[in-house]
Design a protein that fits this description.
This protein has four helices and eight strands, in the order ββββαββββααα. The protein is an alpha+beta fold and 211 residues long. One of its GO terms (molecular function) is signaling receptor activity.
Length: 211
């Protein structure tokens, strides 16, 4: 349901990856101000809301498909080196909320096999382990994520600035709808999540052998 005036506006994305016997399955969705905006099913991403013209949207779809194909090929390659005889399930939940007083809060949470795994502390752009105990897999993933600006400073900027900008552009607090297109920002968030999933390959490698 659309957000009420008393509730914060929200942009939320959920993205799941399941890996079993070297095969990857992807699915997810994005919602903007309570409305479903995008769907991800397998290698196909579709926009439910008409946020981009057909030609621009076709380019976005191709970018997503290309990345997912590369990711799947890497997983197949690595699984041959270090087979894992059980299913791995990775879920990323990220987005931001804009409150009526103008303040905002962003978040990024990762679960592995249904258990809290990592979270991103947006104010200081650091990853924090949530996995119970001092598990080597979580420690390895944390170290890898902290190595790259794409998963630290760039992600911080995206959540604090780009994501919140999507909500501010809605003009809900003034009752005026902005004519600005949100599509590049929305799809940027999707692609940003996929970039992070590239690092997740290390998680599966570490699980299947020594870190």
């Amino acid at each position: 349901c659309p957000a009420s005036l008393a509730a914060p506006l929200a942009f939320t994305m959920l993205q799941w990856t399941r890996i079993s016997k070297g095969s990857s399955v992807f699915w997810g969705n994005a919602s903007l101000d309570g409305q479903l905006s995008h769907l991800l099913e397998g290698f196909n991403v579709t926009q439910v809301l008409p946020l981009e013209p057909p030609d621009a949207w076709a380019r976005r779809q191709q970018d997503v498909t290309t990345y997912l194909l590369y990711f799947s090929q890497l997983v197949k390659l690595f699984s041959k080196e270090r087979p894992i005889n059980y299913t791995q399930s990775l879920c990323c939940r990220l987005g931001c909320r804009l409150f009526p007083n103008g303040t905002a809060r962003s978040f990024y949470e990762v679960t592995l096999n249904g258990t809290a795994f990592l979270s991103f502390h947006v104010p200081n752009a650091t990853w924090e382990r949530r996995w119970p105990g001092r598990d080597a897999v979580a420690a390895f993933a944390e170290r890898e994520l902290m190595k790259y600006p794409k998963t630290t400073q760039d992600l911080q900027h995206f959540l604090n600035t780009t994501c919140v900008g999507i909500l501010r552009a809605q003009g809900a607090w003034t009752g005026k709808q902005s004519g600005r297109s949100h599509a590049p920002l929305v799809l940027g968030l999707i692609l940003g999540t996929f970039a992070l999933l590239g690092t997740a390959v290390g998680i599966f490698l570490c699980t299947g052998g020594s870190c």
